[in-house]
Write a structure and sequence with these properties.
- By secondary structure, this protein is α/β, with parallel strands linked by helices.
- It is built from 17 helices and 18 strands.
- The strands form 3 sheets. It has a 9-stranded mixed sheet with strand order 16-15-14-13-7-12-11-8-18, with helices on both faces. It has a 7-stranded mixed sheet with strand order 3-2-1-4-5-6-17, with helices on both faces. Strands 9-10 form a two-stranded antiparallel sheet.
- Bound molecules: 6-O-phosphono-beta-D-glucopyranose.
- 6-O-phosphono-beta-D-glucopyranose binds next to loops.
Length: 489
């Protein structure tokens, strides 16, 4: 099958190989693609981390991770063994120099020097530059090497610039793959298909017909074992500066000439550059930040953020922002973005609300058409239309849903977004990765919001775990004459 074509043999070196991301996402994703036949038998996956482990012990951890994070029916014993045979491990503090690099060097020396090498940085971003420095010091950067950078790329413009400069000293931009796993999600990519492959949509895709856009990604989990990271980050840096702005870009961008990486990235960048800057004054009216307090999620009592943390904190676990894209297409169209930890549900969706039909013939204003793109769960598209209320002799209107689930052939679950992206890095296709100027433009927009929050221009609100969020977020939309999607469901 075309889309499961085998990639060329490669070495995949994962720094941070004992961490949560590697165990939960990267190894399961690679296993799945191995199972599909996309990863050749002579590919190598080399884990590198500080923990002193023999290869066998690392393989045992990897086996355990596959069992924990993948459904048992896809873990065919022979196949798992063949996959694990591809795995190696080196004990390495990648930010320091020394003889500890010899083991990695000799593992990589086994292959042809022109073989594709992917260095995946699943470590703290502060280490990215020094890892690159060491890769260079030990002669491990080849023409066919690429580096995959996990977010967050910095915590503001200055730190992002330092990281990008540090990596850029050793890798040219075309060899740098900044991953944003939302771009690997099927429905996120589907925004392009829906908008540009359907004249019905393209014709209506502007402020002339669209009244507002909502982009939501809320989840039931709290900060769990990640409090140390999360408390330095918060909802805006963790989800909005990257994932949700990327989604916004796909919704708002002008048609790129092609699906070539730079065409798409230029179109996204133009949106980021057109985002209306938020000032202290507008932050006060157009942004909401909040922390969850104790509540009930999925029938279970859960503690509040501060209790979980065990110390005071001014980090937000909820953020809602109304922003504007200052281009002719989006004149007068608010874009509402929100994200939350410990929400009552896990939902990521894009909701496009159209302007109501300007007709008086029904004696009532028809409801606005709404297009809901469900990123997760139950990936699909729901278009809410007005129809005649069939039960009545009189002519009045009700809403009907044209609802389609987007499914894989055979009803199989969607591949995890990391699968596609991990192999795109091997294939050398950067279209679903973020270019440096996009990261910077996103910080340019986000930083004033963070500053306004830091200087208390916007009060910290609270919301009960398991709720839809603070009342102030409802009021934020009410001021624009709008409601959040769940309020109208
Ligand atoms: C990650 C964030 O990037 O995305 C997490 O760091 C968040 O805090 C996760 O939970 C959400 O991803 P998804 O795919 O579950 O929506």
């Amino acid at each position: 099958m075309e889309h499961f074509q085998q990639v060329e043999p490669f070495d995949y070196v994962i720094f941070g190989a004992t961490g949560d991301l590697t165990m939960r996402k990267l190894l399961p994703a690679l296993y799945n693609r191995f199972r599909m036949g996309q990863i050749p038998d002579d590919a190598c996956i080399i884990g590198a981390a500080r923990t002193d482990l023999e290869r066998e012990a690392y393989v045992a951890r990897a086996r355990d991770a596959l069992q924990r994070f993948l459904p048992s029916d896809i873990l065919t014993p022979g196949l798992v063994d063949r996959f694990l045979a591809r795995l190696d491990y080196v004990t390495l503090d990648s930010s320091r120099e020394g003889t500890q690099w010899d083991a990695l060097k000799s593992l990589l020396a086994k292959a042809q020097p022109d073989r594709v090498r992917v260095y995946y940085f699943a470590t703290a971003p502060q280490l990215y530059a020094s890892i690159c420095e060491n890769l260079n010091r030990y002669g491990l950067i080849t023409a066919n090497s690429r580096v995959v950078l996990e977010k967050p790329i910095g915590t503001n413009m200055a730190t992002a610039t330092a990281i990008n400069d540090g990596v850029g000293q050793y890798f040219p931009e075309k060899q740098i793959y900044r991953i944003d796993h939302y771009l690997g999600k099927e429905t996120v990519q589907n925004v392009l298909a829906l908008r540009f492959a359907n004249p019905l949509m393209s014709a209506a895709w502007s402020g002339e017909h669209i009244e507002s856009v909502q982009i939501t990604a809320v989840e039931t989990v709290g900060v769990e074992g990640r409090a140390a990271y999360y408390d330095t980050s918060g909802a805006l840096r963790d989800m909005i500066q990257n994932h949700l702005l990327q989604v916004l870009c796909l919704v708002a961008m002008e048609a790129p000439d092609s699906l070539e990486a730079d065409a798409v990235r230029n179109a996204k960048l133009a949106v980021l550059n057109a985002l209306r800057p938020i000032t202290d004054a507008t932050a006060a009216t157009e942004t909401v930040r909040a922390q969850y307090t104790a509540g009930v999620v999925g029938g279970e009592n859960v503690p509040g953020y501060l209790e979980e943390l065990g110390q005071p904190s001014t980090t937000e676990t909820y953020a809602a922002i109304c922003t504007w894209v200052d281009t002719p297409r989006w004149k007068d169209v608010p874009f509402y973005i929100r994200t939350a930890k410990r929400s009552g549900r896990k939902v990521s969706e894009i909701v496009v609300t159209f302007r109501p039909a300007a007709t008086t013939m029904f004696g009532e204003t028809p409801a606005s058409n709404r297009l809901v793109l469900r990123i997760q769960p139950n990936e699909g598209v729901d278009l809410q239309l007005n129809v005649k209320n069939p039960a009545l002799d009189v002519f009045n209107l009700r809403t009907a849903d044209l609802d389609t689930s987007i499914r894989m052939e055979g009803g199989l679950p969607f591949p995890d977004s990391y699968e596609r992206l991990l192999l795109d890095a091997v294939r050398g296709d950067p279209v679903l990765f973020i270019r440096r100027d996009e990261v910077e433009a996103a910080w340019r927009w986000a930083e004033p919001v963070l500053d306004a929050w830091k200087h208390d221009k916007v009060p910290m609100q609270t919301y009960s775990a398991g709720s839809y969020g603070p009342e102030q977020a409802t009021q934020l939309l009410a001021r624009h004459g709008d409601t959040w999607h769940e309020a109208s469901e």
